[in-house]
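The pair is quoted verbatim below.
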Amino acid sequence: MNIIDKTLFAIQKINPNLNVTIGGENNSTLEELTIIFENGNAIPKADIKAQFPIVELDMAMEDLRAKRNKLLADTDYLALSDNTMSDEMKAYRQALRDITEGLTTKDEVEAVVFPTKP
């Protein structure tokens, strides 16, 4: 995620109704960005930066859920009423559903190991 997107998401976390324009390069730092707040509702850059870990966790969780949902969708046909799902497949699908439980940091999300499909 580039700094402009991260900054925009952080501002939305603080005030989702605030309209802003962000100028700068994708490889800039927060301090180098120009942020124009409508109606004079400026947010200090320190407050924006404080939201970065939350934004990074949210984005990592979104990616993890997308991968997990794909793996679940790949086995959904086994859950139809005309199939008998093995205990191993039930355990695999439950492990996929539980994979996001208790994750509180981006590093924890990135360290997730997906279960092996039986």
User: Anything to note?
Assistant: The chain has five helices and two strands. The first strand starts at residue 20 and ends at 23.
